[in-house]
Amino acid sequence: MQIALIAFAIGVGVFSLARSTRPEIDFSQGGNVWTGPLQIGDLVVTCLFFALFFITLRGPALAVDDEATKSAISSPSIILGSMLMLALAGFLVLIVVGRGISAVEFFGLDRLKPWHTIVWAVLGCVVCFAAVIPVSIIWLSEFITPVFGEPKMQDMIIFYRETATPVDRLIIVISACLIAPLAEEVIFRGYLYPVLKRFTEPVFAAIIVSVIFAIIHHNVAALAPLATLSILLIISYELTASLWVPIAIHSLFNGVNLLNT
């Protein structure tokens, strides 16, 4: 995370210098994600969010007791986490609409017909699995297993398989397939990515946002696959200019993973 944040800071500085020396170049060109109304205040908000993500990593990094970690996973903790993510997403939406910007227009929520979104979701999910699976295999075999040994099954998956009641499983499904895709897409692809794109350029912004998105999931074994997924979700957003598409792909992707759990 420290490396990602340093890269972010250097990148913003470098592109700021480049913009001042070459004002005729539109570094944010390419794709369809709208960055026009974003201002320096949005970059400040982005920095605050990155600082918040960094702070939240400190607690899990200090946890050494597997049993204590497992016992901390429960329906109330899942609900609380989901509500916090929704609150953060809602805060960013308020920042947008509070300046007189239409959230529907900014996030492109009216760009596609519902059946177009469904088609994009299915095709996008297929592409995501086609890319994420080989990346995961290579990441685990070449980087994780040689250094850390065989990765342990995630505590959430163990809870879902062995401990969770039907109500617990329903809460997990709602969180993973509805709340997390909605909140995370608004935060990362809907707001943070356009801000970084506005002040740097699309490829750099996609990489930084995707790496940080992967890091905050607290799972080194899933770092590369999650970053790959994020980049593909950004591409889907750039192609369609509708945030419904990455939300739908993300939801379907998580749902398929749960079915295979």
The N- and C-terminal alpha carbons lie at a distance of: 29 Å
Cα Rg: 19 Å
Q: Could you state the order of secondary-structure elements as H and E?
A: HHHHHHHHHHH
Mean pLDDT: 91
What are the low-pLDDT stretches, counting only 5+ consecutive residues below 50?
Answer: 60-70
* Helix/sheet category: mainly alpha
Largest sheet: none
Shape: globular
Report strand %: under 5%
Query: What fraction, in percent, of the residue positions are helical?
Result: over 70%
Number of DSSP helical runs: 11
Q: How many structural units, i.e. domains?
A: 1
| Total beta strand runs | 0
In short:
With 261 residues, this protein is mainly alpha-helical.
Written overview of the protein:
The chain is mainly alpha-helical and 261 residues long. It has one domain. Helix content is 77%, strand content 0%. It has eleven helices and no strands. The protein has helices at 2-21, 40-62, 66-71, 75-97, 103-106, 114-148, 155-163, 166-199, 202-215, 223-240, 244-259. Helix 10 packs antiparallel against helix 11 (244-259). Mean pLDDT is 91; it is low at 60-70.
What descriptors fit this protein?
mainly alpha; globular
